[in-house]
Automatic annotation (TrEMBL):
Organism of origin: Carpinus fangiana
Region: Disordered, residue numbers: 154-188
Name of the featured protein: Uncharacterized protein
Domain HTH myb-type: from-to ranges: 9-61, 62-116
Subcellular locations according to the entry: Nucleus
GO biological process: carboxylic acid biosynthetic process; regulation of DNA-templated transcription
PROSITE patterns: HTH_MYB (PS51294), MYB_LIKE (PS50090)
Keyword set, alphabetical order: DNA-binding, Nucleus, Repeat, Transcription, Transcription regulation
InterPro entries, alphabetized: Homeodomain-like_sf, Myb_dom, Myb_TF_plants, SANT/Myb
UniProt GO cellular component terms: nucleus
DNA sequence: AAGTTACCCAACCGCCCATCT
DNA sequence: CAGATGGGCGGTTGGGTAACT
């Protein structure tokens, strides 16, 4: 009856992940793909909850992740989508390739919210703050709004595959404390480079990749050019079947916006 | 230089829905 | 069909660090 519990909680480690743990997890996912998360820690030799492994992978170790602050385009898109979808971060993240729901949620709470308030816009309702009564949303606007979102998404998509980590915090636009340079993706990238280089599977034919051929995703040994990224995704999907590696956003976007 | 405050974000918590037995 | 779990999701927390006093 039912399923076995996710993890026995006893002897399960919590807190920040070590490089060793990251390597184990990456190694395991690369060899076995994402099977059931409950089994991952045991099979990978980790003293972690399966849930924790899933989170670590989707939010940090996934090879397609972009790093650094959200670009202006991405921010605009997040705001648009939030106006339509509310706090459904996973849905919003699905429209931003390489971004996680957690990342977007954090960025919203720490940056965008403040920006909107500064601009006199209620981050919840997206209405002017001094407005007394929030008018009912005009559904006639829906189509227009969605079109705007689609356009933004499309623009973004075209940037993503060709830009080299365009999210790098150049901060030419952010004028306030958002430009704080605490988020230094460089260190992270070094760490990730180390983790991925230490995995014995980088030249696994499954991935059909090598560090030498890498470009924008060089730190993960992934191809960078538009063509290559598409091919990489196809190989990726082909090799791992229907498993969702958190790349649904790409195929999703292709489905919705790829053809025009 | 030391202490305090503010900020950021990775990770955890708890809930919900789909799925399994 | 009912009960239980897995996986996904949004909300929250706590540690680390930069900025300020």
């Amino acid at each position: 009856m039912g399923r076995q519990p996710c993890c026995d909680k006893l002897g399960v480690k919590k807190g920040p992940w070590t490089v060793e743990e990251d390597k184990k997890l990456v190694n395991f996912i690369l060899t076995h793909g994402q099977c059931c998360w409950r089994a991952v820690p045991k099979l990978a030799g980790l003293r972690r909850c399966g849930k924790s492994c899933r989170l670590r992978w989707t939010n940090y170790l996934r090879p397609d992740l972009k790093r650094g602050l959200l670009t202006e385009d991405e921010e605009r898109l997040v705001i648009d989508l939030h106006a339509r979808l509310g706090n459904r971060w996973s849905k919003i993240a699905a429209r931003l390739p390489g971004r996680t729901d957690n990342e977007i949620k954090n960025h919203w709470n720490t940056h965008i919210k403040k920006k909107l308030i500064k601009m006199g816009i209620d981050p919840l309702t997206h209405e002017p703050l001094n407005k007394e009564v929030t008018p009912q949303h005009n559904h006639d606007d829906d189509h227009h709004d969605l079109e705007v979102i689609h356009e933004e998404s499309q623009k973004l998509c075209s940037h993503v595959s060709s830009s080299d980590n365009s999210s790098a915090p150049t901060d030419q636009n952010s004028s306030t404390d958002e430009s704080r340079s605490t988020s230094d993706p460089g260190d992270d990238d070094l760490l990730m480079n180390y983790i991925w280089s230490e995995t014995i599977f980088l030249d696994d034919p499954l991935w059909n990749i090598s560090p030498e051929t890498s470009g924008s995703y060089g730190n993960f040994g992934l191809p960078s050019s538009e063509d290559n990224s598409d091919r990489w995704l196809l190989d990726y999907e082909k090799d791992f079947g229907d498993e969702d590696f958190g790349l649904g956003c790409f195929s999703d976007m292709d489905m919705n916006y790829g053809t025009q």
